[in-house]
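Escalated from tier 1: pyridoxal-5'-phosphate holo job.
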Amino acid sequence: MDSKIWLSSPHMGGTEQSYVNNAFETNWIAPLGPHVDGFENDIQDYLKNGSIVTALSSGTAALHLALILLGVKQGDEVICQSKTFSASANPIIYQGATPIFVDSEEDTWNISPELLEITIQDRIKKGKKPKAIIAVHLYGMPYKVDEVNDIASAYNIPVIEDSAEALGSSYKNKKCGTFGEIAILSFNGNKIITTSGGGALITKDHTTKQKAIFLATQARDNAVEYLHSSIGYNYRMSNVLAGIGRGQMQVLDERVQARRKNFEIYKEQLKTINEITFLNEPESFFSNRWLSCVLTPSEDIREGIRLALLNKNIESRPLWKPMHQQPVFSAFPSYNNGVSDALFANGLCLPSGSNLTENELDRVISTIKTYFRAC
Ligand SMILES: *Cc1c(COP(=O)(O)O)cnc(C)c1O
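Tier 2 regenerated the structure:
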């Protein structure tokens, strides 16, 4: 049996272990400490544009705090891109709010600005103005930032920028993670860089960061005894894991280059197969190509390729199943145009790790070519 090829596996740079050792040597084994501060500064220096970063236990925790900080409460409505990973939508439910799902457009596979505006107008007509918009840079491809922001500000609704998959991507030369009222990152094991598990909240001012830290550390009021006048969470990042993050930040740009190279190799090597197409970057969009995705003409062909790869011990995965199709979310309102349904039926994510070898890429490519030759 050939060795397993994963969709996206962790890739250490080499200095992570020394940061972790330092945490042990100094006994900073806690959800605060010098590495947490250092990691936050590293991310701020990378993103620029006045970003204020709070390191947290996960991207999901960051999304949850973002909703709380924007005042989302029981009974409120929150717009969410339907084509995404469930973690974008789950925190809406944690708050007792109602997700309103909006479909994608074909240029970036992200939230359709046209449908977003129709949705906002319809929700207002039905009696409630949405409290926030969660837009996602899927697979690292930026959403249409200007269009989404213009609509959001016209209706005075804050955007939560889910940049979990898009660290290292940019739009008009500005880094993803700097466009929303609040943005989030993820450092889960499969993301472009990882702390094994972790996330970050990106805000525009220190007051919001102070509120985020307050909520993330059990909402302890300023008193000698443990005094609480609001509900808190345990969402801060461990200093040990932040050490991994500091090492990973040193190689982030290399990771982006490697993932983009994977994409270019797939595109070049598979260009003779007419049934396979790729998503190109629109002008002034720069994707980290977190996952290399292909579109096929049908669900049957997509499944055919997936099973052929599986048979060679190669992991691949259909594009995210849209939230409006998920059993747990299907009863909530959704505004659809068929784009995300078609992407789900026909699209496949190929192995995309920054540590894939040439030999592994060749195995993926030749398996796909063999599949089509046999058709
Ligand atoms: C990974 C991911 C998240 C959640 O991040 P975790 O750190 O795993 O909690 C949220 N949104 C999207 C789009 C993601 O891909």
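The pocket of pyridoxal-5'-phosphate is lined by residues 58-60, 84-85, 87-88, 136, 162, 164-165, 186, 188, 199 (CB under 6 Å).
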